[in-house]
Design goal:
15 helices, elongated, Lysozyme, 2 domains
Length: about 300
Amino acid sequence: MPGMLREASALIAVVALAATALPCAAQGDADAPELKEAIAHEHGEGVPKDPARAAYLYCRAAREFNADAQFNLGWMYANGRGVPRDESAAAALFASAASLGHPQANHVLGYFASVPRRAPDCMREATLSPLPAPLFELAVPHPYAPDPFAALPPWKQQIAVVVDKLAPKFAISRRLALAVIAVESNFAWDALSDKGAAGLMQLMPETADRFNVERVYDVSDNVRGGLAYLRWLLAYYQGDVRLAVAAYNAGEKAVDKYGGIPPYPETQSYVRRVVSLYGSDTHPYAPVVQPSPAIKRP
């Protein structure tokens, strides 16, 4: 097993290294608008990082036989960035890019020799769905009530400054982030619950591990982890704020088990308080994960 892990780590390192190489003339139109926009969203160059949008744009360009786009999208599938990790999709994209003369793709393809190739759905479908609007433009709530965070006391404003900096990177509205912080810890950076939830956004140890939070009492690290979890939950529950924050409080397994907000008085009160402060029961999301079975479909 350790040998397999080392091999997988080495493979990802090779793909990442090759992805940094300069494009060559045979790789397609390097000035293609969709390719340039995809690169910007992937790396946060002049815009907030938005891996899901980058993958969408790469796929549009890849369908037009742009080898750069095919290679970059393959890298995203190989590493699970903005799309679910899928080595078969990565292998298919690297093979296609290599056939178009992309030298780095040809080199990386050797590491996928035994992997069956299957083009991702966006490459195989006859048409793509409409291009989603950028997340940082979408992540603006439509409040039903005045903003309760418009005039915070100075010590809470210091926390809000951190939220203002980080929330756009996760496409989470400032107001929703502050609503969760207010209900979770009342802006206390050193809060610790009797269940072990810590910091401003009350991260449980397993949640901190899941979202790579090393210092739960560091304001920026804690907020970053909480925002990452919120973004995942909003995608999982397709923008339903009530279900997302219920899962933030009780865990997504509980929400899925009951097919909605669990019948826990604490969670039901929590949801009412957060939604009241946020001012809306919906929030924009990117479909970066498969939706929860709790989502009711027509």
